[in-house]
């Protein structure tokens, strides 16, 4: 009986297991030296992020170098460097998806100083360790864009080599088919297994970063001849945060258009008929995040309401009656 229950539990775990790919190859690397530039071997490196549950460490080698990979993208990392007889340095680090940073950390005798600095991870000017071509869009960048409808798919076409000719939200990369692009949300593929296209809508307020890989993807990725869209969602932290935003556009702010006084134009609608065409987009967003228990558990919630009112093409009364009507399109 026990063996059967154990077997059943294993089958359930396998049945609901989702294949997850690496979110990114983000990480930290650098070299630790003293004030004269001499490397410091066996220096202790610690990186923490309470919101993401990260607590990793490393020790520098004989050249004073260290490397900590992979690390999930996010903000609020604290990098601490310690060496006997030297002052401790703490760094506030922000790590972007698919990016890392290489830095030289200089330690001074503990009697001289203790430093606390802030750095933001960025890609090297020439990355000699990777052939991947990618573009990263942060939440701050996305917020500043005048995106019609606030759909994250509209951001993807800003990456070099990406286009969406038919406007259906399924981009193509370097001329590939739209089904040859894999969309990952926190490392899990969301493509429709039947059509191969994107299979999940995502609230743009829940996105922390979007990374578009257009060439040279590593062995962590597969099942795509075009490229990859890697989306990293936001997460809660030790501080309570909330946000509300509203997107609206409507006929009130739109002009009548050229040729409105010519009854032959616009399908024969005329002045009154054309002015009666109304459209209205109303989309409020809300997001809330914070701690359930500080340094232990957190939550993040986001929601959006979409109300769209668009005019549609319909047969004119003249066409239905079968009468002759001269119209100019």
CATH superfamily of the largest domain: TonB-dependent receptor, plug domain
Structural domains: how many: 3
| CATH architecture grouping of the largest domain | Beta Complex
Overall 3D shape: globular
Beta-strand percentage range: 35-45%
Strand order of the largest sheet: 3-2-5-6-8
Question: What would you call the structural class?
Answer: mainly beta
Textual characterization of the structure:
The chain has 329 residues and is mostly beta strands. The chain has five helices and 19 strands. It folds into three domains: 27-120, Sandwich (Immunoglobulin-like); 133-233, Ferric Hydroxamate Uptake Protein, Chain A, domain 1, CATH 2.170.130; 241-321, no CATH class. 10% of the residues lie in helices and 37% in strands. It has a five-stranded mixed sheet, with no helix packed on it. The chain has a five-stranded mixed sheet with strand order 9-14-15-12-13. Strands 16, 17, 18 and 19 form a four-stranded antiparallel sheet that branches. Strand 5 (74-82) and strand 6 form a beta hairpin. It is globular. The termini are far apart. 23% of the residues are buried.
Kindly list the characteristics that best describe this protein.
five-stranded mixed β-sheet; 329 residues; 19 strands; Immunoglobulin-like; mainly beta
Summarize the model shown.
This protein is mainly beta and 329 residues long.
Secondary-structure map:
Layout: H1 2-15, E1 27-34, E2 44-49, E3 54-59, E4 65-68, E5 74-82, E6 89-95, E7 100-107, E8 115-120, E9 133-138, H2 139-143, H3 153-156, E10 162-163, E11 172-173, E12 181-185, E13 188-189, E14 207-215, E15 227-233, E16 241-250, H4 270-275, E17 280-293, E18 297-304, E19 307-309, H5 317-321
Parallel strand pairs: 1-7, 6-8, 12-15
Antiparallel strand pairs: 1-4, 2-3, 2-5, 5-6, 9-14, 10-11, 12-13, 14-15, 16-17, 17-18, 17-19
């Amino acid at each position: 009986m026990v063996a059967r229950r154990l077997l059943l539990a294993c089958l359930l775990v396998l049945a609901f297991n989702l294949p997850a790919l690496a979110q990114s190859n983000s990480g930290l690397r650098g070299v630790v030296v003293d004030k004269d530039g001499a490397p410091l071997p066996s220096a202790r490196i610690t990186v923490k992020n309470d919101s993401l549950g990260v607590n990793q460490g490393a020790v520098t080698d004989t050249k004073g170098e260290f490397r900590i990979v992979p690390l999930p993208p996010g903000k609020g990392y604290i990098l601490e460097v310690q060496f006997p007889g030297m002052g401790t340095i703490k760094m506030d680090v922000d790590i972007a998806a698919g990016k890392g940073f290489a830095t030289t950390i200089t330690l001074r005798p503990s009697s001289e100083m203790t430093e606390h600095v802030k750095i933001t991870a960025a890609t090297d000017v020439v990355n000699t360790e990777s052939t991947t071509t990618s573009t990263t869009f942060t939440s701050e960048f996305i917020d500043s864009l005048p995106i019609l409808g606030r759909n994250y798919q509209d951001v993807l076409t800003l990456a070099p080599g990406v286009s969406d000719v038919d406007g259906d939200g399924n981009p193509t990369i370097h001329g590939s088919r739209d089904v040859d692009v894999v969309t990952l949300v926190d490392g899990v593929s969301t493509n429709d297994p039947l059509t191969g296209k994107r299979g999940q809508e995502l609230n743009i307020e829940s996105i922390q970063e979007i990374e578009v890989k257009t060439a040279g993807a590593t062995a962590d990725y597969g099942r795509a001849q075009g490229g990859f869209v890697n989306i990293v969602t936001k997460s809660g932290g030790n501080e309570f945060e909330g946000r509300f935003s509203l997107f609206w556009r409507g006929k009130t702010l739109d002009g009548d258009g050229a040729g409105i006084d010519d009854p032959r134009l616009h399908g024969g609608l005329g002045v009154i008929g054309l002015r009666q065409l109304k459209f209205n987009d109303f989309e409020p967003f809300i997001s809330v995040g914070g701690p359930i228990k500080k340094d232990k558990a957190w939550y993040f919630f986001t929601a959006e309401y979409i109300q769209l009112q668009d005019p549609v093409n319909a047969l004119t009364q003249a066409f239905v009656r079968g009468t002759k009507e001269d119209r100019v399109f």
